[in-house]
Amino acid sequence: MTVRAFFQTAKVETVKPPYDTIYLKILYPAQMSGSHTENNLGIVPVDRQKAPFPVVIFLTGLTVKPIYING
């Protein structure tokens, strides 16, 4: 299975800086096609045959308790 990732940031409006920014790394199963967009820009579409995709959230820190959400 080919796995790709992209990075994104998000702001939390109810929190004061510098704690108002969340950094995300999204990993997903990709379907390589050899297309122009894939070769030149690195944009690879999702392999929908692998759906539904599990969601795992990692929170770092000493005071963060592990939780499991079954959705």
Structural commentary:
This protein has 1 helix and 2 strands; from the N terminus they run ββα. The chain is mostly beta strands. It is flat, with a radius of gyration of 16 Å. The protein has one domain. The protein has a two-stranded antiparallel sheet with strand order 1-2.
List keywords for this structure.
71 residues, mainly beta, two-stranded antiparallel sheet, 2 strands
Number of helices: 1
Structural classification: mainly beta
Compute the average pLDDT: 85
**Low-confidence parts lasting 5 or more residues at pLDDT below 50?**
none
Strand percentage:
25-35%
Number of DSSP strand runs: 2
Rg estimate, integer Å: 16 Å
Largest sheet: 2 strands, antiparallel
Q: Going across the biggest sheet, name each strand in turn.
A: 1-2
When the domains are counted, the total is: 1
The gross shape turns out to be flat
Instruction: Report how far the terminal alpha carbons are from each other.
Output: 24 Å
Order of helices and strands: EEH
Helical amount among residues, as a percent range? under 10%
